[in-house]
């Protein structure tokens, strides 16, 4: 069986195993994610690769190099999904990595170890902490994370879910790193694009310039007063929804100003809702909950947005007689990709005859964690119709094959240059 045929079968196996109509569900540290890791491990063992799992639950599949003291060439992505999501988000990068190892194995031992990392818990929808798995791998999470975070579907702690899956939450509590940045020569993540840029440009692959940083407020709340819809005049109301609408309008105006200045930013307000068990058509709503997600390639843009958000929230709360609580927020800094890796990926795509273009990543990815640790990092996007985080995401297998060709050409060039850097034998 060819490596690509094997990958096609594994995509089908992952979809069948985690089917949750209308899509797939592989919850972080849940049965779906666990089963996905088991599928990849089983296939890797059958191919003769080394496998191991760390204290957090990350799976490593390694093609041993001739000099195992050299820093590792690493690739990989995640295997969890959003609820009822698509089958390719994350999994495409893991299976592209498996294809890479199998192709490289056909040419004899590489000069250094080449490792595929199947990462845990990338999708923030399950636990409200960005890049949870990859940050845990480097010992970067706050020590209280296992006991503070609760999974969205079960309301049980991260520690509980990790223990149930057979892993050690104490590693996070003690900040024990599983990876040493000095031991990683480069990291490259292959991933489906989560927007329409490659589709509209007619390009099967994209080379990522930078991963947008983000600020996320997961638990925003406006408390006003629930009163009679007919008996209370406008000036006497403390309407939580109208206060929220005014805040949304102010934030969109800020967004427009940023765009007009030529800077990069995207803003999303989600889960904008009242509680239907207490609010109704004859009541002035006294409570509103919502989320805020703002992203930019420029950390200064994010900082200015956060300042404006706090200022406008305070002004609107005073004006309307409500209390606005924006809650705890997380912040991930923007992550520029290695210029050298971008150039090498362009050369690899050209050598393979694969049309390509440069673009920014709107979504966050574990690759940003590797870049933040000073590891030369890059991302290769695969064209994907119908967006992502939904059951309709669509990656043509021909595009996946093209991305695998580019990844192999890039890795082969990286390894050949490494060979020329090795000292001559005595």
TrEMBL record:
Q: Which InterPro entries match?
A: Amidase_Cbmase, Bact_exopeptidase_dim_dom, Peptidase_M20
Keyword vocabulary terms for this entry: Hydrolase, Manganese, Metal-binding
What are its cofactors?
Mn(2+)
Q: What is its EC number?
A: 3.5.-.-
Q: What GO molecular functions are on record for this protein?
A: hydrolase activity
Q: What highest taxon heads this organism's lineage? A: Bacteria
**What is the main EC category here?**
hydrolase
Q: How does it assemble?
A: Homodimer.
PANTHER family (alphabetical): ALLANTOATE DEIMINASE-RELATED
The similarity annotation says: Belongs to the peptidase M20 family.
Q: What is this protein called?
A: Hydantoinase/carbamoylase family amidase
